[in-house]
Amino acid sequence: MAAMSLNLDAKAIQEQLKKQFTGLDPNDPSLWPGLPRNLLYVAVCLAVIAGLWFAWLQSVDEELIAEKTREEQLREDYKKKLVQAVNLDALKKQLEQVQQYVTQLERQLPSKAEMDALLSDINQAGIGRSLQFELFRPGQESVKEYYVELPISVRVTGRYHDVGLFAADIANLSRIVTLNNLTLTPGKDGVLAMDCTAKTFRYLDQDEVAMQKKSAGGKGAAN
After folding, report:
1. Phi, psi (deg, nearest 5) at residue 131
2. How large is the average pLDDT for residues 196-212?
3. Which of 43, 146, 193, 221 is 20 to 30 Å from 90 at the Cα level?
4. 74-93 burial string, b = 16+ CB within 10 Å, else e?
5. 15-60 confidence digits (pLDDT tens)
């Protein structure tokens, strides 16, 4: 009798549960019986929690990727700085050599006051090789960022070997002088005419440096 009673109770419970899930209106869950309504509430809560969980995991994953990228960049920067630190003595020696080279080049550039002497040296180099100057005309100075360029229109006549030696003498001057746009024209009796533009350079004096800085500052402000 007890077993039959338990079977009847179980069937009754099953029937009651079945009735609660029968005829549910999907458009209005508020009218559902308690059990399906509560199960729906639990399912919605679980879905929301799962959505938030996956969204959080995604943001954490993106942050992790960004941190890994940053770690790689820091490693590369560390390697570069480590190499620089190891080679610091060698870099210092290279810097000293560069500074010595720059100083040496600066010594080859005359000052503004020494330009007349340099022009005289060029003239004397031609006279010393028995050349005749038909033209020796300094042009307009061109101010660059760190130096001033002075072009000189030159035309000399003389023997072939004397002209060549004159060019070699110009190259061996203690100051920097270059021969540009050089043309040679043969004349009578073995005489050769050489036309060229001799360019010499000098470094800026303090006033010119100040003007350069002022000009550069004015352009920067205008931009």
Report:
1. -95, 150
2. 77
3. 146
4. eeeeeeeeeeeeeeeeeeee
5. 766 766 676 666 766 666 767 677 777 777 888 787 777 777 777 7
Residue whose tokens read 């073995």: 190
Q: What is the DSSP letter of 31?
A: G
Tens digit of each residue's pLDDT (9 = 90 or more) over 163-182: 999 999 999 988 888 999 99
Q: Which two tokens stand for residue 205?
A: 């004096």
pLDDT classification of 94: cutoffs 50, 70, 90: confident
Q: Are 141 and 150 in contact (CB under 8 A)?
A: yes
Using the structure block, give the residue that is written with the tokens 């994953």. Answer: 61
CA 66 to chain centre: 25
Distance CA 203, CA 45 (A): 82
Provide the token pair at 4: 């039959």
Residue pair 190/159 in contact (Cβ under 8 Å)? The answer is: yes
Q: What is the pTM of this model?
A: 0.49
Residue 107 CB coordination number (10 Å): 11
Cβ 191 vs Cβ 159: under 8 Å: yes
